[in-house]
Design a protein that fits this description.
Elements: H1 4-11, E1 16-24, E2 27-34, E3 39-40, E4 47-48, E5 53-64, E6 67-80, E7 84-87, H2 101-110, H3 116-123, H4 127-143, E8 152-161, E9 165-172, E10 177-183, H5 187-197, H6 199-203, E11 207-210, H7 214-223, E12 228-231, H8 233-254, H9 267-271, H10 279-291, H11 293-308, H12 314-331, H13 334-345, H14 347-356, H15 361-377, H16 383-394
Parallel strand pairs: 2-6, 8-11, 11-12
Antiparallel strand pairs: 1-2, 3-4, 5-6, 6-7, 8-9, 9-10
Helix pairs in contact: 2-4, 3-4, 4-16, 5-7, 8-11, 8-13, 10-11, 11-12, 15-16
Length: 404
């Protein structure tokens, strides 16, 4: 049996000592006694030698061995001359909390890699207590972030749930972190971000990397006109791959039924980079390109366009693109002509790529993390909580204790 003196040392509360211990069915209840000393008003800090009355308060604490620990803590009320009747603040727990700081810190640490339900089951705690502890600590960490001096942003969307529900992720490209998550992918969504970021920080932006989503471009031009817009190369290739696949689909519909087997189910073969093809896929590609001249031309133009991103300067890139567009016009393939028109409308943002050589690959990596968060929790019904989880996982938040 632990002595009260040893128990007091184990607890480590400077102003409190263990007065009584009760053991029952996996639990240990420890009654604490406050050491003599002045009573301090939590609002103004004024000290008093007498108190109005004493209240009892139970707090969950870290386990002692395999036993769950409950603290019976006295909390005193005093009559402050300036603030009225006040409850003295406990140094090891938040006002109104049902657990100590260190137990809430444990809940927060466990939720880094476990679901709220799993943490609640492991610690035998109510799931709402677990969730509230994580949310509170994340918000505290967010308040400590340094957001000044950000010069380069990446903006991308990620699916929140089925039914075309999206979130907009804003990333700091230099610090490799997500700094903001908002619902939707409209111009209004990005407007909310800029209002949150503030006009002073917005004026300091120099480069913003986005996909070819017009609402983003319009809002950036309105809010940060001095920032260069760079279109992400991976999203540009996504549009081209879609155009090539549309060529394949059109030709498949036009072919006689007996010849369709050559093109059918060859989507990934024709879209995959040539150097990444397996031996079997190379055979399938050769068969596909030999079946139709138009699809062969579309594939060659697609591979030629990939070389465009290797240009060393804006001047070289402009000349290369001019020659490539001429080849597209000569081919007369309607899907590629539409893609060429898309490039013409966004030529400034495309040329900026060759000056800054930036992509949104960081955002794409965060998208995979977001998918893992969703999968681990089997989806989120609380959108705000989901956004906080993303910021925790992708925001490079400090992992030190927060003063509540």
């Amino acid at each position: 049996m632990l002595s009260l003196e040893i128990l007091t040392r184990l607890l480590g509360f400077r102003k409190y000592v263990a007065e009584q211990v009760d053991w029952f069915s996996g639990w240990i209840t420890i009654r604490l006694k406050r050491k003599p000393g002045p009573y301090v008003c939590p609002r103004c800090g004024e000290q008093y030698l007498v108190y109005h009355d004493r209240l009892g308060r139970f707090l969950r604490d870290l386990n002692l061995g395999r036993r769950k620990t409950l603290l019976d803590v006295p909390q005193y009320r005093l009559d402050c001359d300036g603030c009225g009747r006040q409850r003295e603040r406990l140094p090891f727990a938040r006002p109104g909390a049902r657990a100590t700081h260190r137990f809430e810190q444990l809940l927060f640490d466990l939720t880094a890699d476990m679901t709220v339900k799993a943490v609640a089951r492991r610690t035998q705690t109510n799931w709402k207590t677990v969730k509230e502890a994580e949310v509170r600590y994340i918000r505290g960490l967010l308040r400590k972030r340094k957001l000044d001096g950000i010069r380069r942003l990446g903006i991308d969307e990620v699916a929140e749930r089925s039914g075309h529900r999206y979130l907009t992720l804003v990333t700091d490209l230099d610090e490799h972190r997500v700094i903001w998550v908002g619902p939707g992918r409209s111009r209004g969504t990005l407007g909310r971000y800029f209002r949150w970021f503030g006009p002073r920080r917005t004026r300091e932006l120099r480069v913003v990397v986005i996909d070819m989503h017009d609402p983003y471009a319009l809002e950036i031009a309105a809010q940060a006109p001095k920032a260069a817009i760079v279109y992400d190369r991976f999203h540009v290739m996504k549009h081209l791959n879609l155009a090539v696949d549309l060529v394949r689909r059109r030709l498949q519909r036009q072919m006689p039924a007996a010849d369709r087997r050559v093109i059918k189910n060859k989507r990934y073969v024709i879209l995959k980079a040539r150097e990444n093809l397996t031996s079997k896929e190379r055979v399938g590609l050769k068969e596909l390109l030999g079946a139709n001249e138009e699809i062969s031309t579309a594939y060659i133009l697609k591979e030629d366009f990939r070389e465009w991103f290797g240009c060393d300067s804006r001047t070289d890139a402009r000349a290369y693109l001019r020659d490539w567009v001429a080849k597209v016009q000569e081919s007369g393939i309607p899907e590629l002509l539409q893609f060429a028109e898309l490039l013409h409308r966004r030529r400034r943002g495309l040329r900026n790529y060759f000056q800054y050589k930036l992509t949104n690959s960081l955002s794409e990596g965060f998208n995979n993390v977001v998918k893992t968060i969703k999968k681990m929790a089997y989806g989120f019904h609380d959108s705000d909580y989901f956004r906080l989880k993303i910021l925790r996982k992708c925001g490079k938040l400090e992992t030190e204790d927060i003063d509540d």
